[in-house]
Amino acid sequence: MRVLAVGDPFMPVSTFTSALATLGEAVLVTEMQIENAAAPPPRTASEELLREYAGDPANMVAAVAGHDIVVVHGAPITAEVLDAASLRLVCCARGGPVNVDVAAATDRGIPVTNSPGKNAEAVAELTLTFALMLIRGVPGSVRFLLSGGKHADSAFEGGQFIGGEAASATLGLVGLGYVGRAVAVRARALGFTVLAHDPVPPDIVPAGVSLVGFDELLARSDIVSVHARASAGNQHLFGSAAFARMRRGSYFINTARESLVDEDALLAALTGGALAGAALDVVERQADGGRHPLLDLPNVVITPHIAGATRETLRRGAEMVVESVGQVVAGQEPGYLLNPDYRARKAAVS
């Protein structure tokens, strides 16, 4: 079976091909590497539907011809790409395949799989790193030195940076999916009291975690960490009203999506003293392309969307893709299936 494996600046094609090698002669792999993530403006209705994709869809149309399966991370899979080959499977090594026109694949009777939870371990670790940094005052103490402050000669001079410990803090998790659960388990091991809220009752609640309402979580937590999947219904879930309901002097963490936060409201809460600090792995781009104002606050740490950027995350994503490919090669339905409705359409067009 011919497989087109497409790498991008985040996930190199070699990660896919190394994993696909475990299938031996059952697959013949063609490699394609997208070196530049820049993409042209959308030219088709299908391209309009995609987000966060790397490269030109036209190049994918040219490359996919003659293949049975295509595996990608961030490469665009449009209706035009799907029409350029008789595909039996599309695999996307992401939790949210926003670069794939899943509806178009379903209409054509093509199954689409993803890799749910592949980055949960990495995101959870960064979240806990942020939580500990905030309660220990790391952002402010680092900036103190960077701005010319004197390095302490004795333990007494560290008194201005007295912080807290995990066992004395309550961590509130908004969202208890793969990442939220991974954070909860680690937080409990460190001694945090853990509260969680999820509008959809989770199937699994880690030991020691208390499920509460959203307002109760905000009122009781020393740190609120967001792990919700972005949707049209929860844009700016954290705005002025939510920040006003949080404990005065509490902390805020976002390692999920920037659309979940009204950053003007967050800036006001931080500068006004309602919140003691924040740690963010995602922020909105400034309309004028300028420097983000949150970067200049001494009680804020921002990282450039690195939460899932680990070698282990890439490996897990590739392994989950290969699992699905292997199942199709063996004549089985793939796991991690996103569009079970493809079966009815496939039957209709067969």
Compose a concise summary of this entry.
Helix content is 34%, strand content 15%. The chain is α/β, with parallel strands linked by helices and 350 residues long. A seven-stranded parallel beta sheet has the order 8-7-6-9-10-11-12, with helices on both faces.
Topology:
Elements: E1 2-7, H1 13-20, E2 28-33, H2 45-49, H3 57-64, E3 69-72, H4 79-83, E4 89-92, H5 102-107, E5 112-113, H6 120-135, H7 138-146, E6 170-174, H8 178-190, E7 193-197, E8 209-211, H9 214-220, E9 223-226, H10 240-245, E10 250-254, H11 263-271, E11 275-280, E12 300-302, H12 311-329, H13 342-349
Parallel strand pairs: 1-2, 1-3, 3-4, 4-5, 6-7, 6-9, 7-8, 9-10, 10-11, 11-12
Counted beta strands:
12
Report the CATH architecture of the largest domain: 3-Layer(aba) Sandwich
Gyration radius, rounded: 23 Å
Envelope shape: elongated
Order of helices and strands: EHEHHEHEHEHHEHEEHEHEHEEHH
Helix fraction, binned, reads: 25-40%
Overall structural domain count:
2
State the distance separating the first and last CA atoms: 20 Å
Structural class: alpha/beta
- CATH class of the largest domain, named Alpha Beta
| Order of the strands making up the biggest sheet | 8-7-6-9-10-11-12
Q: Could you describe the largest sheet, including whether it forms a barrel?
A: 7 strands, parallel
The named CATH superfamily of the largest domain: NAD(P)-binding Rossmann-like Domain
> How many distinct helices?
13
CATH topology of the largest domain: Rossmann fold
Enumerate the spans where pLDDT stays under 50 for 5 or more consecutive residues: none
Averaging pLDDT over every residue, what do you get?
95
Assess the beta-strand content as a share of residues: 15-25%
